[in-house]
């Protein structure tokens, strides 16, 4: 099957008895839509895809309404990715390349991956504006996102988990964006825990490469885990979303203060604000800005 025709979806399985979770993410089509939206070219598409698929894998393990926010900061070709993903399979994210080669440490200190050395932080919230989020942080030590997520689960959550990402290009075009995750839950046998701990990144990336074929993925997963029985928990389509609105943009303008808002306006008839995530352009006319500051900001919703 041509990759372009593949549906973006995740498949989640649970071992019977329920001691191991297995997740396959196929997100090539979704990523190509997001890449157009973001206007990304070249290798930046791959860094962005790593962050989006990685965030979806993490979100897939969470309860309904418990969303995740990934903030990855690198020192190599990739400077930053910010991604929001939900257990309902919805995702948005933006990406910043390091365009100044002088500032890229990638390639200078040996065979580090394209993120260079950096920091990966993961925030869990009950919804996107939750009050008391859980935050975990880990170094991006090897320059590769999937290895950083593995370190994150080990160091920040003390969970035995293995993640692999499979991102492939055909020249300039992103062809595949897939991910695999295996996670131990309570009740796994010591032998199972040991088997999962010993899986290496190449085995996980090979497993991820099968994410578009759930049957083959599951067969390979079982092989790696000693032929356990698994049940399909969920097959869910993945989609992009955004929460921006004119109201939110106006609220943000009010929070920047009247002086800054008027400076941004300058001599123009309207302030133009572009959403970093979905690139929607909002225009707030001069008269509206004046009206916003003419009333009590705490009343604005
Ligand atoms: Zn938006």
CATH fourth-tier homologous superfamily of the largest domain: Hsp33 domain
Strand content: 25-35%
Low-confidence stretches: none
Euclidean distance between termini CA atoms? 48 Å
Helix content bin: 25-40%
Spatial strand sequence of the major β-sheet: 7-6-3-4-5-11
Biggest pleated sheet: 6 strands, mixed
| Number of separate strands | 13
Provide the gyration radius in Å.
21 Å
Q: What do we call the CATH topology of the largest domain?
A: Hsp33 domain
Query: Could you give the order of the helices and strands?
Result: EEHHEEEEEHEEHHHEEHHEEH
The CATH architecture of the largest domain is: 3-Layer(bab) Sandwich
Tertiary shape: elongated
Work out the count of structural domains: 2
Top CATH class of the largest domain: Alpha Beta
* Count of individual helical segments: 9
Global mean pLDDT: 90
Give the distinct bound molecules: zinc ion
What class do helices, strands and sheet pairing give? Answer: alpha+beta
Please supply descriptive tags for the structure shown above.
301 residues, alpha+beta, Hsp33 domain, 2 domains, five-stranded antiparallel β-sheet, 9 helices, elongated, binds zinc ion
């Amino acid at each position: 099957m041509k990759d372009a025709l593949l549906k973006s979806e995740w498949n989640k399985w649970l071992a019977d008895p329920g001691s191991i979770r297995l997740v396959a993410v196929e997100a090539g089509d979704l990523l190509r839509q997001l890449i157009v939206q973001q206007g990304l070219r070249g290798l930046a598409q791959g860094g962005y895809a790593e962050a989006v698929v990685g965030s979806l894998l993490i979100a897939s393990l969470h309860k309904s309404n418990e969303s995740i926010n990934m903030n990855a900061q690198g020192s190599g070709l990739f400077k930053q990715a910010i991604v929001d993903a939900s257990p309902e399979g919805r995702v948005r994210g933006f990406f910043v390349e390091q365009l100044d080669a002088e500032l890229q440490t990638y390639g200078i200190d040996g065979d580090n991956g394209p993120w260079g050395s950096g920091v990966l932080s993961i925030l869990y919230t009950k919804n996107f504006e939750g009050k008391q989020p859980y935050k975990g942080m880990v170094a991006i030590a090897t320059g590769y996102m999937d290895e950083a997520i593995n370190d994150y689960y080990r160091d920040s959550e003390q969970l035995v988990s293995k993640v692999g990402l499979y991102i492939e290009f055909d020249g300039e075009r992103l062809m595949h964006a897939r991910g695999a995750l295996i996670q131990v839950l309570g009740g796994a046998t010591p032998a199972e825990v040991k088997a999962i701990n010993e899986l290496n990144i190449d085995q996980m990336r090979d497993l991820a490469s099968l994410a578009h074929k759930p049957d083959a993925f599951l067969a390979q997963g079982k092989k790696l885990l000693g032929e356990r029985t698994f049940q399909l928990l969920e097959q869910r389509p993945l989609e992009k979303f955004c929460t921006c609105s004119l109201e939110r943009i106006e609220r943000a303008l009010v929070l920047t203060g009247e002086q800054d808002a008027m400076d941004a306006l300058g001599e123009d008839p309207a302030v133009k604000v572009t959403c970093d995530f979905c690139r929607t352009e909002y225009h707030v006319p001069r008269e509206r800005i004046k009206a916003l500051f003419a009333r009590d900001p705490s009343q604005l919703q």
